[in-house]
Specification:
The protein is an alpha/beta fold. The structure holds S-adenosylmethionine.
Length: 461
Amino acid sequence: MSDWSQGYPTDSAYIDAIQTEITPWRWAQAMHFGGLSCPDPGKPFRFLELGCGSAMTLIGLAAAYPWAEFTGYDFMPEHIVMANRLIAEIGLTNIEVLEGSFAEMAANPPAEKYDFAAAHGVWTWVPPEVREEIVDVLGTWMAPGAVAYFGYNAAAGWCSLAPVRKIFRSAPMARSADERYGPARAAAQAWVDMMADGYPQMELLWNKLSEAPDHFLAHEIASPFGTGKWMEDLGRPLERAKMAFAGPAVLVEHMEALYLDAAEMDFLKKAVDGGWGETARDLLLRRTFRNDLFHRGAMKMSGPAMVDNMRGIEVVPWDPALEMGTHPSVGDQLKRGLPDDVLDGLKDLAGDGGRTFGDCMAALDVPAAQAFQVVMTAYVSGNLLDLRPEAQREAAQDGCDRFNAAMMRRLKSRKPMPGFMSPAWGGPIQFGMKAHRAVIAGEAEDSFGLADRMATLGIAV
Ligand SMILES: C[S@@+](CC[C@H](N)C(=O)[O-])C[C@H]1O[C@@H](n2cnc3c(N)ncnc32)[C@H](O)[C@@H]1O
């Protein structure tokens, strides 16, 4: 471990990842739904990422929002080299990725402030003094009205894994570099096998983690500061940066009635009345990760203004079973949805092309408030896909084509390929299934109708 690492595991590069929750287009919807205004992602804006890693997400976003400026910082030089190689390969000019620690950033605030910030996989991986530096940066780098996104491990889901973390920090490392956590893996597996009956969530989490490579585990569970946090553990320090909690970044997480049964809703209501709603949400959803938005003095937005915004959004039919990361957080957690006939009717209507969220509402012969709920449910559950205005899609096409071509080159040469970027909805695409990759690489039959979906997303492969 080196001096400059401040306790962060810097002996191996982080995985090349793309984060589907990071998209200003969807953040604006989530902010509005939470009753707050948001910088317009369709107009020029400045976007900052703290701890961007190899900046895969940031580079994709720069391709999808060519009218905006993107800046990423990370203190690991390997990450900066990787990011700049991809930026040069794609030929983007609206992004810079720079080497710098949060402490160095805090000491050098820019003259021109930022409208959006993202810190994914950072807050719950660094020591307390580095968290303070992050707050210092947000307090001096962000413009009034700015929105900051944090993706971080949630305490509710991670507490059951505390013993496994402890094993990873206690067991000696193996001599061979590519087997360094061999003894810790074996001990964790043996312990989980003995205890799993009483801790089903621990088993679920460990099963997932045990498949990850050592260099991922180094960051995720072996780092001395890795932990899960509650929302207030982040919200309270951010008050110093004049930032307040705005709500979940992913729209579906605002609609808990879709996830919870009557007893759970009652538990949540009492918690909300008692002022500890976010803790109750984490517990009820057994959250292992939170994707939260915070704002710096955003204006309030009325319900009717929010509905008007949604009404104007173009929608097309979609299929949640495709697992392409277009509707993050939906998974199999939804307990309630729409009857098939209502869904089919909405998809038929949207399928004609050029239809909006408002057209779908109007086609339902029910009062506006109910129509809004129904179309929103179809949308957040992944049965409708939202499209950005045509002018934005067109402006983004060329950069996204170049980003996606670079990803295709990786896929075809069997290198890690985290995902594509969709000019259609301004966010990253990920494939949940290996079979999808084989289809896109031209190695398997397209039994999923992927080619059509990719065309809708504006991804030429
Ligand atoms: C878990 S990775 C997440 C990377 C990326 N945001 C993602 O989600 O794919 C955390 C990143 O924070 C960076 N980091 C940690 N401490 C830092 C510090 N004090 N200053 C700047 N970057 C730091 C690491 O180098 C690493 O790239």
